[in-house]
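Appendix B. Chain record.
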Amino acid sequence: MNPGFLPGFIFAVKFNFISMEKMIITGEKQITEIVQKAVAEALNSWEKPEKFISRKEACRRMGITLPTLDKAIKRGDIEAVRIGGRVLIKEN
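C-alpha cells predicted for this chain:
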C-alpha cells in the first residue's frame, strides 16, 4: 500500500503524447475493462500468417506434373513466391 492513497484504489496516469490527453484510472474494474478492450481490439486486428506449400505438394494436391505447374506459374495462373532458393505456392 502506498502512503497517502486510500486502500482498495489504484491510481494510474496514462499520457497520450500525440494529443497530450491524461486519463486517470481510479479502480481495478476500470483497469480490467481497459485491458479487456485492448486485448479484444488486438485480437480482431491480428492477421493470420500466410501459409505456403512446396511445388511438389502443390502438384500432388492439384494432380498435375511439375512442368505443368511451372508453366502455370510463368503464365501467372498460380501465384508463387521465391524464398531463399525455394519456390513456394500460397496454400489458398
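Further analysis of this model is presented in Appendix C.
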